[in-house]
Design brief:
Elements lengths: L6 H51 L9 H8 L5 E5 L11 E4 L4 E4 L17 E6 L4 E6 L18 E6 L13 E4 L11 E3 L2 E3 L10 H11 L10 H9 L8 H11 L19 H7 L4 E3 L2 E11 L5 E7 L3 E4 L19
Antiparallel strand pairs: 1-4, 2-3, 4-5, 5-6, 6-7, 8-9, 10-11, 11-12, 12-13
Length: 343
């Protein structure tokens, strides 16, 4: 005689399946959303850099006094469907967003100029809708430099961008659907992410300072020596407000341990293989990752000065991480990112 499942047994099985689904589906949905946000962010940043490099090649990247003039040229190189003045930002962007680890609510209508991005550029913020569904706030650096013969130039350094990968849908939260390029802070808030209780600003590409500017400000900023007329390391120190506001090599090691899910990477450790970069964590923090001959990479300045021409930095790559100082740590390298320590 064949045995069959009873109605009670079927109902119990369905209840167990339903219970497991209730527990696991939210995590699966959230993971799917995070991957979608990360992919959208990667694609957008690459397209924006291609557009900016095209502008550099055509010598239309520099020379603007307002962000709106810059954006009107930018739309010739990347598809933009709408531009909103700084008095109407919420027509192109969510009216409020959550920023930093504390998820402070920021009223976007108050973020009207570059100073609300923590940048002393003196330009306005403009709202932009891109044809791919990305909404953004953009500020332009009027001191932007172009060089059509230099294909190594990080052309996107000329702008600061806060962008939403979900077209104004929730959660409108930094590190999730909301990302930033070259933004030091947002509104009155400074802390973009926190690791081991240490508060950091959002990553940014510093603007260089000349040797003369460095000499004038070095005692105030804590810089010992000046040499280059395009000193990006000194520019990072200036943007953060001094040596003591920049991360040490110890801080950069903490970031390395965080993104590689390790605990044994020291301040000056070089690890040549075996690491696995957690790209979700990198995206959440906001670092811009570049595609290089040996894989994905980003580089971050420390506060530690070697001499007038070199400073320490850490390079973070897909499977390894290196420290550079007196060798290959030239202060006039333009592709390095920076972060600030925040009280």
């Amino acid at each position: 005689m064949k045995k069959a499942f009873t109605l009670a047994e079927i109902l119990i099985t369905l209840m167990v399946i339903g219970f497991v689904a209730v527990l696991t589906l939210p995590n699966l949905i959230q993971n799917h959303k995070q991957k979608a946000w990360n992919t959208a962010a990667d694609v957008f940043q690459k397209k924006l850099e291609v557009a900016a490099r095209s502008m550099n090649t055509q010598e239309v990247l520099a020379g603007y006094t307002t962000t709106k003039d810059f954006v009107n040229e930018l739309k010739k190189h990347i598809k933009i469907t709408k531009i909103c003045d700084n008095t109407e930002l919420t027509k192109c962007f969510p009216s409020s967003v959550l920023w930093g680890d504390e998820q402070e609510e920021i009223n976007i209508s108050e973020v009207t100029s570059a100073k609300y991005f923590g940048l002393d550029w003196g330009t306005e913020v403009v709202g932009v809708e891109f044809s791919n569904g990305i909404d953004a706030l953009i500020a332009y650096d009027p001191n932007c430099v172009q060089d059509p013969y230099n294909n190594q130039i990080q052309a996107s350094n000329c702008m600061a961008v806060l962008y939403d990968t979900s077209a104004r849908k929730n959660p409108n939260t930094y590190g999730k659907d909301l990302r930033a390029i070259n933004i030091v802070k947002l509104g009155a808030s400074n802390c973009a992410f926190e690791i081991e209780g240490i508060c950091f600003s959002a990553p940014f590409f510093p603007t260089s300072v000349t040797k003369a500017e460095c000499e004038v400000e070095k005692s105030t900023l804590g810089i010992k020596e000046c040499n280059y007329d395009n000193d990006y390391w000194a520019g990072a120190i200036k943007a953060c407000g001094g040596i003591n506001k920049m991360p040490t090599m110890g801080h950069l090691a903490k970031i390395a341990n965080y993104i590689y899910n390790r605990s044994d990477i020291g301040p000056y450790s070089n690890i040549g293989s075996g690491l696995v970069m957690d790209k979700d964590k990198v995206s959440k923090i906001g670092f811009v990752v570049d595609n290089w001959l040996y894989g994905e990479i980003f580089n971050v300045w420390s506060s530690e000065e070697c001499n007038s021409t070199h400073a320490y930095r850490r390079d973070y790559m897909g499977t390894y991480t290196y420290v550079y100082g007196t060798m290959n740590g030239q202060r006039n390298l333009s592709g390095m990112q920076a972060i600030c320590l925040v009280d």
